[in-house]
Amino acid sequence: MSPLIAPRADPAPPQHLRSLRVTLADGAQTTVHVATHELASTRVRVARLTRPEPLASWCARTGVEEALVGGFFVRPHGRPLGEVRTHGIARESTAFTAPWHKVRACLHVDRGVVSIAPRDSFCTTPRGDLLQAGPLLVRDGEQVVHAGSDPEGFSAGQSQFDSDISDGRYPRAAIAIAGEHLLAVAVDGRAHDETGLTLDELAATLLDLGAEQAMNLDGGGSTSLVCGGLLRNVPRGEFDVVIPGGRAVSTAIAFAPR
C-alpha cells in the first residue's frame, strides 16, 4: 500500500520546496522534504568534498544554494564508499566489495543528461560525473526494491556499513527523475513524531511523487537537503538526538541554474 501524502504547513518556503507529512499503513507518520528542479534549466553536478563537512556548512562556504547529500563514506576518516567520478576522472574512494561494485546504483551526469541506473548500465570509464550509492528504488516507473530481496547486496555486504541499511525505518535521502524534473528528497526520522521510512516505503513515496527512476543515497544522521541556502530537514544521529547543522559528509549532489 502506498503511503498517504499530505502537505505540511511551512512558513514561506521556496516555491520549489515541499514538506509533506506521509502517513504509513500502520498509522505512523514522517516528514518528507522534496526540492523539485527542472532538468532543462538545472545544472547538476557531483561534488567530492575536499574534507568531510556538514552539507549546510559546505554550501555556505562555497556559495551553493541547492544540494543533497551524496553517497556513503567510511568512518572515521570519511573516505567516500562507492565509485565517484567528476569531469570523467575517478576520485579517491573505497570501492564496494565484489560483486556488488558492479551492480549498485549510480547517478550519472554527462553534458546535461542525467541518468539513474545500475553501474553495469554504464561503460567502465564514463565521461562526466558519476556517484555510486543505492539501492535502486524505482526503474521505468516500477518499484524495484522489495522486502526480502537483496539484488545489490546491501544486506549481504553490510560489513562495509554501520548496519544493514535495508532493514528498518530510518531517515533517508534519495534522488529521482520524474518526467522533466529532478526530485531531491530528504526524509526525517528517529523521533517520536518522525518514524522515518523503510526502503520499500521510500520507493512507494517516490512513485506517488511521479518518480520514473530513483535511487537511495546516504541516510541516517547524514541525511541532508539544502534548499534556498538553508538546511531543510532535521538530521538525527540517534533517537531524538539532533545533530545541529547535520553530520559531516564526503560527497554531495549540487544543483544550480543554467
From TrEMBL:
Protein keywords: Glycosidase, Hydrolase
Superkingdom to which the source organism belongs: Bacteria
Keyword DNA repair: no
Residue intervals of the Phosphodiester glycosidase domain: 63-255
Pfam families reported in the protein's UniProt record: NAGPA
TM helices/strands, residue ranges: none
Protein name: Phosphodiester glycosidase family protein
